[in-house]
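Please, structure for the following, as tokens.
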Amino acid sequence: MSWLTRVRQSIPFIAKRDTPENLWHKCSACGQMIFVKEHEENQYVCPRCDHHDRVGPKVRFENLFDPGSWTVLPSPEVAEDPLKFRDTKRYPDRIKAARAATGETDALQNAEGTIDGQRAVVGVQDFAFMGGSMGQAVGAAFLAGIRAAIAARCPYIIFTAAGGARMQEGILSLMQMPKTTVAIAELHEAGLPYIVVMTDPTTGGVTASYAMLGDVQLAEPNALIGFAGQRVIESTIREKLPEGFQRAEYLLDHGMLDMVVHRHQLRERLASLIGYLAPAAVN
């Protein structure tokens, strides 16, 4: 036995300490390292640069509704692979992977509850679920949320986050535009408000279908909002677009939004809007 082996064997074994892999979060905007717990407590907003990270339905509902007041509404069932679509993967396999990653049935989830004592139905799109893309399931969930709001005589609030229509459903995804437009008309006929909160990113068919049809249009700071991409527009009009084009603040300055609201003030602002637009929604 060599002296090196004897020395090595004489060193007592110390078990490796278990350290959580998710102790830190790196801000995608400024690169700042933030404690995950601090990030969660700050509603997923960077304390250094104020970047608003993307969040899913569960976080939205917990931060928005009064504690213990909300329940998730069931998602309508639709044909999951109507076109038998396949690219590099089968469409059902993509849906299965998205469900495993997010714990959600599809890209739009509704919940009913109270915001500062005022009843509301809230829909939240999750960009983590196939880019928040709009297919038949999203259209059906949107319609179900509207009709739940009509039944409860309260506003419908939608948080949009999407890359557009879902290509795996082809023309069926584009057919969700008239469905959602008619649903909004039903809400208006019932005398109830439709409030849109656009988050990063809100683009493509979702923008055209229901994101730009709100009675009041809100957005989170610096959210990307538009229909076609910036490069597509520049190549079409053959001009350089201005700085900040398609960002929430630019759209506010040019009349496409009513207000840009920080996530920390969003609950209070929505409660005020419900009070103004639907005073009968008090629980």
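DSSP finds eleven helices and nine strands in the chain. Strands lie at 24-26, 33-35, 71-72, 108-115, 118-125, 156-162, 194-202, 216-219, 259-260.
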